[in-house]
Specification:
Rossmann fold, 6 domains, eight-stranded antiparallel sheet, 13 helices, 16% helix
């Protein structure tokens, strides 16, 4: 039982408190606990003093306490008392800003951010107010006094410490003298000396954090054997969050002995692992496998009993979120993303997607934001764009992290009043099949995609809003009609003001039975097979009858032309059904009508039919004589046809000639090539990258960067460099660079040959790059293919001309 005089003093002190009411649930939880903690924060005028890097003590205390509230054991009821923040010169300016209950860390941090130091330092009376906040059922309590000064209101703190001892329960009062001198701290040493608490004198933010964590968990047990310390091992987690479980081990740095300490499972009942260690210097390791790792070296003293917080670096998720703009200004846009590997945090509010004006560096300045989750799978975020066209930044960040340099994904987007739209879908699908569709441009979440026939929607089952298409559930997928035939995929731009929608893009779609292509996992959309050595499939002679497998560029199986875009050369065209090509390359134009002095490299490509003696069409042949057949001048150079009278070959020639496009890509001379930097990671964190133009993506180790891809000299692959430059150290790793043969320093990745070109590249750095690299089929041009009607017209016209000549 508590002493009568002490009870009277506590009741009198309670008149100074402006107490907030507790909910019934909080009261019940607090009453059930046999422990409690009360924090007293100094908010007197002296807290405006600077202590570290030009920052004030109150700024540092707000930040450190905000982290502390999040990290501490939430099952222990906590109360918070603040003094000196309302009135100058008033010794009664003491306020309970959080009564003792189960507290939510972020909410307490927000309350502290609103506190402004003003007044005096009533230490003794604040201790009494703190004691009044201990639940009557508690058997033990910790009072933590954080102060940067001594008593200024005439109440002797040492006498109050005697009152705490007389309470009849085990109260430990700790003094955390933030920035106090040794002499000032000793003036307050009577408080912890009398109550069994700790006297700590932090002089920086890091030392304040360590001091608070040392008071957070009571270690009441004594070591079982002499010469040992009784410790609780807990995690000091970073922004990634806390894992579900962690395995602890220790190494004695003097003897080399390694010891397994046990497994800590965070199931709500335990937040620390009790262990005993002999005195000496130890390295503690907290290992959660793929979820993260932490370690700490410390000196363990014999007879010590305290909680040790080990800094823990958790794993962030791997995710892909692409810029699919330009986006429509003034509307809510859909931002699909996919989490390919979970990190520690994965809940529905663990991450945020922010929209900022270009050039801003902190999420605190965001125009708007939305909660998203980090579980594995395809997800959808939405953001409201401002009505003003311009360039903005999208950033995917862990909740609570504000620096854009720590973003998991970040890119700039363009907002336009009426942006163009590109549809990317197969041109041929089976009846009732799911249609993989990618949209670039506009992305108002209420825009629609429809499948139409003869200009009319065939049914509402084949109309989806843009936001529906990105949900992974089956009812939201775009499904091909059950009846074979010619259809059209249409993108309808919705009017945010309620007006009529308009067609922004369309693409022809053929629905038919049969096997559309082989090797589906490596096939670009549109029915085209790239670099496939498959033989005859009943449609005539196959590519491998004439070309080695590695020399086949593209092939088109089936009865419909295939849309092709080659990222290495910038060529785009329709490949006639049943035709195949060699690998596109570059060569100076020396044939046909080309100027004799012209030596710039132009794309070169040969097309072959499946005839027993293949019909051949050549783009920019290196040598060509007129007797071989006619050549036509086109934007890409010259397209030449070996002499033939077959209507179907002439039709194929016309299809290729009418659809060949080139974006002007040329290989840079090796000696002059200075590729631009695509992305660089911060020095303390790995990051993911993706090059939309080529489909190359992966993960970069901390401090590493990657250049924009360039065509390799053979024209068959994309090459790039990975680099690390810091503190005078420079490392390079090559992807598909000429002259790098497989060997001990090379490894094969999903995107090609990776070779290390520096002796100090670590195995971990190389493994991250090699194992994460991938290449997706790049997006095709916004230009749609020829319609079937137009192709039929060309074939009919040429067939008639051939018959007339015969």
């Amino acid at each position: 039982m508590r002493g009568g005089k002490a009870v009277a003093a506590i009741l009198a002190a309670a008149a100074f408190c402006a107490a907030a009411s507790l909910s019934a649930a909080q009261n019940a939880q607090a009453a059930e606990s046999d422990r409690a903690a009360i924090l007293i924060l100094d908010a007197s005028g002296s807290m405006w003093g600077q202590i570290e890097g030009g920052k004030t003590k109150i700024e540092i205390a707000r930040r450190v306490l905000g982290d502390f509230f999040t990290l501490r054991d939430a099952s222990v009821p906590l109360g918070v008392v603040v003094y000196g923040h309302n009135r100058k010169g008033d010794c009664s300016d003491i306020e309970v800003i959080a009564q003792t209950a189960m507290q939510e860390g972020s909410g307490l941090a927000m309350r502290l951010n609103r506190i402004t130091p003003r007044g005096k330092t009533p230490l003794g009376q604040s201790l009494r107010v703190a004691a009044s906040q201990i639940p009557r059922t508690a058997e033990a309590a910790d009072i933590v006094l954080v102060t940067d000064g001594l008593e200024t209101c005439g109440v002797d703190p040492c006498a109050v410490a005697d009152e705490l001892i007389a309470e009849g329960i085990n109260i430990r009062a700790h003094v955390v003298g933030f920035g106090l001198t040794e002499q000032e701290a000793q003036a307050l040493a009577c408080i912890p000396d009398k109550t069994g608490g700790m006297l700590l004198r932090p002089q920086s933010g890091d030392e304040l954090a360590d001091a608070l964590t040392r008071t957070a968990e009571r270690v009441d047990r004594a070591p079982a054997e002499p010469g040992r310390a009784a410790l609780n091992l807990a995690l000091q987690v970073d922004a990634a969050g806390r894992p579900d479980a962690v395995d602890w081990s220790a190494k004695n740095l003097a003897t080399g002995e390694e010891r397994t300490l046990g497994r800590l499972v965070f199931d709500g009942s335990r937040t620390a692992l009790p262990v005993e260690l002999e005195g000496g210097r130890w390295r503690l390791v907290a290992d959660a496998g793929e979820a993260g790792r932490g370690e700490l070296e410390l000196q363990v003293s014999e007879g010590d009993n305290r909680t040790i917080y080990v800094p823990f670096a958790g794993a962030f998720p791997d995710l892909v979120m692409e810029n699919r703009g330009p986006y429509t200004a003034g509307v809510t846009i859909a931002l699909p993303y996919e989490v390919t590997r979970e990190g520690v945090a994965r809940g529905g509010a663990d991450f945020n997607v922010y929209l900022l004006r270009q050039g801003q560096a902190s999420a605190d300045d965001a125009i708007t934001w939305t909660y998203v989750e980090g579980t594995v799978g395809k997800k959808l975020a939405t953001l409201q764009l401002p009505p003003e066209p311009g360039r903005y930044t999208v950033a995917f960040l862990r909740n609570g992290v504000t620096a854009l340099s720590d973003a998991l994904v970040r890119f700039d987007i363009d907002a336009e009043l009426k942006p163009g739209v590109t549809l990317d879908a197969p041109s041929v699908v089976n009846p009732g099949a799911e249609i993989p569709l990618k949209v670039s441009g506009a992305h108002y979440y209420l825009d629609r995609v429809e499948i139409r026939k003869d200009g009319q929607l065939i049914s509402y089952d084949h109309a989806k809003s843009l936001q529906d298409l990105y949900w992974p559930d089956a009812p939201h997928r775009l499904i091909a009609p059950a009846e074979p035939g010619l259809y059209e995929i249409v993108y309808l731009r919705s009017d945010a003001t309620g007006g009529d929608a308009e067609i922004a893009a369309s693409q022809m779609l053929e629905v038919r039975e049969g096997e559309l292509w082989r090797d589906a996992p490596t096939a670009p959309s549109g029915g085209a097979i790239q670099k496939s050595g498959l033989g005859d499939d009943g449609m005539g002679h196959g590519p491998d009858d004439y070309l080695p497998e590695e020399d086949v560029g593209f092939r088109c199986d089936g009865n419909a032309p295939c849309e092709i875009r080659d990222a290495a050369t910038g060529l785009r065209f329709l490949l006639p059904a049943g035709w195949f090509t060699d690998v596109p390359s570059f060569a100076p134009r020396t044939s046909g009508a080309a100027d004799a002095g012209e030596q710039l490299p132009f794309p070169s490509l040969s097309f072959f039919s499946r005839a027993e003696v293949p019909d051949t069409i050549v783009l920019n042949p290196h040598q060509w004589i007129r007797m071989n057949g006619p050549c036509a001048s086109i934007d890409v150079g010259e397209l030449c046809l070996f002499e033939t009278t077959k209507p179907e070959v002439l039709a194929s020639y016309e299809i290729i000639k009418a659809t060949l496009r080139w974006d002007g890509t040329r290989p840079q001379p090796v000696e002059d090539a200075v590729p631009a930097v695509l992305q660089t990671c911060p020095q303390d964190a790995a990051c993911v990258f993706f090059e939309e133009a080529t489909g190359l993506g992966g993960t970069l180790p901390a401090g590493w960067g990657v250049h924009v891809s360039t065509p390799a000299a053979d024209g068959r692959s994309r090459a790039t460099w990975f680099f690390f430059r810091h503190g005078g150290t420079e490392k390079h790793i090559a992807l598909n660079q000429d002259g790098n043969d497989p060997g001990e320093r090379c490894a094969q990745s999903a995107a090609g040959l990776v070779c290390e070109l520096a002796p100090d590249i670590t195995a971990a750095e190389k493994a991250i790059i090699v194992q994460s690299l991938y290449r997706k089929a790049p997006a095709r041009s916004a230009e749609g293919p020829l319609t079937k009607q137009r192709i039929d017209e060309i074939v009919g016209k040429l067939r008639g001309a051939a018959e007339a000549r015969q």
